[in-house]
Amino acid sequence: MSPGLDWSLFDMCVNSGSKGAKILQKCIGANPDGGIGPKILALMEKQNPKFVVKKFAELCQNFYEGLSVFETFGKGWTWF
Predict the structure, then answer these.
(1) What is the DSSP string of 3-61?
(2) I need a surface site. Which of 47, 68, 69, 73 has the fewest CB within 10 A?
């Protein structure tokens, strides 16, 4: 897993459980079932790491902004 994405995925999974894995899977065009195994890792190897990191951050931000409590807690949850 590329540097930056590893930390971002860890952070998202700590905050939102399997949602982080599902968002990652969406970024790479896989079925978002929440599992990361050999097939997902092989698919990630074929991706542009900068694109995946950027897309992952964008989808995480969208997820957080969609929560009803974002206005109250959002600044502490996001990187933007």
Answers:
(1) TTHHHHHHHHHHHHTTHHHHHHHHHTT---SS---HHHHHHHHTS-HHHHHHHHHHHHH
(2) 68
